[in-house]
Design brief:
Radius of gyration: 17 Å
Low-confidence stretches: none
Structural class: alpha+beta
Number of helices: 5
Helix content: 40-55%
Order of helices and strands: HHHEEHH
Mean pLDDT: 86
Number of domains: 1
Length: 134
């Protein structure tokens, strides 16, 4: 899983707190999910696919997941993009390789290639969503 943490944005925090905790958390969650779409598509495009498998394929289980919690009095939103827990071992084997399998990374490169786009979309989405909730 890939995780990003943004710190030091005091003005953004004030704006989000001004919307209320519930709405501010929803703004961050929705903006983050929209920003991670390019990473999701890149991962799906490069994830392994076994045509002979009868169960769900690993690339079909790649999704954007979010959770939130309260840490030190602040609302925190976590966003993850990657395969489900069921496919964790397969993803790890493809990403890092094994004794019998050559590594074919698809998780790290997806974020590396898309990080500028993710940050640009995130900034635009947060700004638009804050403006829409005023």
């Amino acid at each position: 899983m890939i995780r990003m943490e943004v710190k030091g944005l005091q003005e953004l925090e004030r704006q989000l707190l001004g919307l209320g905790e519930k709405v501010g958390t929803q703004v961050l969650r929705d903006a983050g999910k929209a920003a991670l779409e390019p990473v999701l598509e890149d991962m799906k495009a490069h994830a392994g696919y076994d045509e002979s498998a009868k169960d769900e394929h690993m690339r079909d289980s790649i999704k954007i997941r979010s959770s939130s919690s309260k840490a030190k009095g602040n609302a925190v939103v976590y966003l993850r993009v990657g395969p489900s827990k069921k496919h964790f071992i397969k993803a790890l084997a493809q990403e890092m390789g094994t004794v019998k399998q050559v590594a074919s990374p698809f998780i790290r490169p997806a974020l590396d290639y898309q990080k500028a786009k993710v940050l640009r979309i995130l900034a635009i989405e947060i700004r638009d969503r804050i403006e829409n909730h005023r």
